[in-house]
């Protein structure tokens, strides 16, 4: 058996993918197996290897890289390795000698990262992404059960992966072992950071003195290690300002995360302040909060450490409202826009952080009514230019607004009637690269919610609640409707992370029709699942793509070449389904024939009894009998009529 040859280009590519700088790796520190052949069998040693054949592993599926480790001298190697082993043994069995920490040859200190080799690759928490059928997973919560499924549209049904009662943090390739336990008594709410590095937990505790307010405890844990990184404690009043929903007088989430997927910053709003923390030390930036008089709302860019702040009008309009963009950590104001006669304001970030839309409700001159417009910020352009957009009818009520993910378009539902209009706009077109322009308006639609595909291009126009689950699948590239449908009483809509499938659900807010439907992106209903006491449906998130934007564009252009494999598989599955349908029809036909034969036999067995009942008449043929119609009259009711006379009348 020849040893496997690995090209240096492949090694460099693997190192780049794993974020390893090969120039910093001390090759002399690598310990090779003993013996002159370095443990590799020679071609002329076949006679020495006649025992049972060995199984050789291929790939790196059972190896992980741990970074951000402390840089330590030789005398602390053993202690650091013990800590690493204790933490990472919780997700699998580490192979003997399976921890390797590269060393700087000059300082003899570790380089701040290590390789860990497990006995099997089953601990790879992202192995599900390598599914041969390119399927996605979803989790549902119904009754007391939590169930994980593969979405298998080819088979027109989901495939159960895991089922469990209770709640904790579970993960894995197939077994869903418990990865970590986070100690927080009486926890009531949780929230993950965007990069899934941290878990925020919340509890509320009644005071011993009825005149006091509830005591609040908020913990922030490192998801991988389970370590408590920071806790916040106080009364309800200290945490009452924040998100859009919660318990015990607290808006949730209290903390909002910024800095993109790196999870570098988190912030919360207090009275006249924004408190911004960094996750390197979990302390306030510059050890103090940022003073913003009368601030009522803030929002992070999804990709960059930029805060958008809204401050309302003060002094009866003498001091205008304003929206400010602030760079973190330097707290530098990048852009400010003053707004006059403002009634309310709401901010919408595009998911790539390229645009910010600010919906501004303004009072008319009489102050008796309001109208709406949009301030559109181009974040990535020089000096952050701002455009003002007003609808054709600026008095229209704004029902919903949504940016196209990874794109430059947005949709608005507007109007006061039961059938509002839906308009689509673009921040750049071939004719107006730097100007917003309207693409089209769809008139009189039964919709009150917008759900863009995460890949852009397609959108579901949904009529939830009072509209009873009306659905329209719309192609924004071609400006045409692909399909319409209905999921009666639908309460929730969720696109899968690839933009291929859509789930609609009826949760337990309704007593009837609980369960979910799975649709294709183009609006074809694939399958329905019913579940009593159905609470929640969530697709399993996918990590950010490792491909560059250029590579993704190249794949999109050559999609037909890549899709041939899956088209062949689809055809095989289709043939299997057709064969299953044929067998099912054959089985039903056989059951019918068996039933007919059974009743013919029973009919024959009862022939003599029928003859006797007909006083000896033998024939069972209908034409041998004469049919007569007989009319029967029956008195149903009798009504008496009383006539009164006036005897005094002449």
Rg over CA atoms, rounded to whole Å, is 35 Å
Distance between the termini: 137 Å
Q: What's the count of strands?
A: 38
Summing up helix and strand content along with how strands pair, one would put the structural category as: mainly beta
- CATH homologous superfamily assignment of the domain at 58-122: RRM (RNA recognition motif) domain
Task: Output the CATH class name of the domain at 58-122.
Answer: Alpha Beta
Give the CATH topology of the domain at 58-122.
Answer: Alpha-Beta Plaits
What is the CATH architecture assignment of the domain at 58-122?
Answer: 2-Layer Sandwich
Describe this structure as you would to a colleague.
This protein has 650 residues and is mainly β. It has a domain at 58-122: 2-Layer Sandwich (Alpha-Beta Plaits), CATH 3.30.70.330. The protein is 13% helix and 34% strand. It is built from five helices and 38 strands. Strands 13, 14, 15, 16 and 17 form a five-stranded antiparallel beta sheet that branches. It has a four-stranded antiparallel beta sheet with strand order 6-5-4-38, with no helix packed on it. The longest helix has 47 residues, at 559-605. Residues 43-56 have low confidence and may be disordered.
Write the layout of secondary structure elements.
Elements: H1 8-17, E1 63-66, H2 77-88, E2 94-100, E3 114-118, E4 137-142, E5 145-150, E6 159-165, E7 169-171, E8 177-180, E9 189-192, E10 198-205, E11 215-222, E12 228-235, E13 256-258, E14 265-270, E15 273-278, E16 283-284, E17 290-291, E18 297-300, E19 306-311, E20 321-327, E21 332-339, E22 342-349, E23 355-363, E24 370-378, E25 386-390, E26 398-403, E27 409-414, E28 421-426, E29 437-442, E30 449-452, E31 458-463, E32 470-475, E33 480-486, E34 492-495, E35 501-506, E36 515-520, E37 525-530, E38 534-539, H3 549-557, H4 559-605, H5 607-613
Antiparallel strand pairs: 1-3, 2-3, 4-5, 4-38, 5-6, 7-8, 9-10, 10-11, 11-12, 13-14, 14-15, 15-16, 15-17, 18-19, 19-20, 20-21, 22-23, 23-24, 24-25, 26-27, 27-28, 28-29, 30-31, 31-32, 32-33, 34-35, 35-36, 36-37
